[in-house]
Write a structure and sequence with these properties.
278 residues, alpha/beta, five-stranded mixed sheet, 12 strands
C-alpha cells in the first residue's frame, strides 16, 4: 500500500519560506496570506514530527532538520516543473484568460459577451473562476477582477464603478421594503446593518448567502430584497429582472478591482471594452 504523503502545498510553502527565510516573502511569492503559509508549514512540521524553523523576532532560521529537508524538496519541485514543461505550449497571442468571481462573470461579463465576440472575433476568451488569492495565483490570468479593498487588489488595480449598494427585488414581489424578506450577502463590510445605520428603521435579513451573485439569484426568483453591488445589478435592472426596492443606497466598503497582469493586445482590448459597458 502506497505511503500517504503530505499535501504538495505544504512542501511548496516550506520551500518558499526556507529559501526566503520569511513567511511574508514566501506568501507574496506564492500568492497566499502570511498566516496561510505559516499554518501550512506548521502542519508539515506536525506531520513530520520535527521543527523545521527556529522562529525569532527578527526572522526565521532553519533547524538541522529543515536544512536537511530543503534540498530534497527543492529538487522534487524542480522535477515536477520539468515534467510539466513539455505540456506548456505557451499562450497564443489571441488567447485571453480572465480570472474573476462567478458573480462578476454571470452578472457583468456574460450578458455583454456577444458584443465583445462580435467586435473581436479573433480573440479566444477563457474565464477562470477565482475567489481567493490562491485561486488567482493558480489561474495565471492575463486580466484579474478581484473583490475586496484597494490594498488587497494591488496599487495598480482600478476600481470598477458604480460602487454603491442598492436594494433590489423582483417586479413580482409587492410590498414595502420594511415588510419584505431580506437577503444578506455575508463576508462583506456593508450589509443591512450598515443600511440601518445610514437610513434608520429596523432591517433583519432572513436569508444568508456567500456572494452578491447568489443574492441576486434569490431576488430574481422573488425570495426577497437583496442588498448588492450596483455594478452587478445593472443588467438585471435594464432587462427588468429586478427593480429598486428603495430609492436610497449606501457606499460599498469593498469593490471590484480590475488589473492587467500580463499586458497584451487582448488584455487591453478586454479592459477597454468592459469599462465601455459599465
Amino acid at each position: 500500500m502506497a505511503k500517504s504523503l503530505p499535501p504538495l502545498t505544504w512542501f511548496r510553502a516550506f520551500e518558499a519560506a526556507a529559501r526566503n527565510l520569511s513567511f511574508t516573502a514566501a506568501a507574496e511569492e506564492i500568492g497566499l496570506t502570511q498566516s496561510a503559509v505559516s499554518q501550512q508549514v506548521k502542519s508539515l512540521e506536525v506531520r513530520l514530527r520535527v521543527a523545521l524553523f527556529i522562529r525569532q523576532a527578527r526572522g526565521l532560521s532553519l533547524t538541522d532538520d529543515g536544512r536537511r529537508l530543503l534540498p530534497q524538496v527543492a529538487a522534487a519541485l524542480d522535477s515536477l516543473a520539468a515534467a510539466t514543461d513539455p505540456f506548456d505550449v505557451g499562450t497564443p497571442e489571441n488567447f485571453l484568460t480572465v480570472a474573476t468571481s462567478v458573480s462578476m462573470a454571470q452578472w457583468v461579463i456574460a450578458p455583454y459577451l456577444p458584443n465583445f465576440s462580435k467586435r473581436h472575433p479573433d480573440i479566444h476568451l477563457r474565464i477562470q473562476s477565482a475567489t481567493w488569492p490562491d485561486d488567482f495565483h493558480s489561474a495565471q490570468a492575463d486580466v484579474e477582477i478581484r473583490f475586496g479593498s484597494q490594498k488587497q487588489a494591488g496599487k495598480n488595480a482600478e476600481l470598477l464603478t458604480p460602487n454603491r449598494l442598492i436594494a433590489l427585488k423582483s417586479p413580482s414581489l409587492t410590498g414595502d421594503i420594511e415588510n419584505l424578506p431580506l437577503v444578506e450577502a455575508v463576508g462583506t463590510s456593508g450589509g443591512w446593518k450598515a443600511w440601518t445605520e445610514t437610513h434608520g428603521g429596523e432591517y433583519r435579513p432572513e436569508f444568508f448567502v456567500d456572494s452578491y451573485g447568489m443574492a441576486l439569484n434569490l431576488a430574481v426568483q422573488g425570495n426577497g430584497v437583496a442588498l448588492v453591488s450596483e455594478l452587478l445589478a445593472d443588467h438585471a435592472i435594464r432587462t427588468n429582472q429586478l427593480v429598486r426596492a428603495h430609492a436610497a443606497s449606501i457606499p460599498g466598503k469593498e469593490g471590484y478591482y480590475l488589473s492587467i497582469v500580463e499586458a497584451s493586445r487582448p488584455a487591453v482590448l478586454f479592459r477597454d471594452w468592459l469599462l465601455e459597458q459599465l
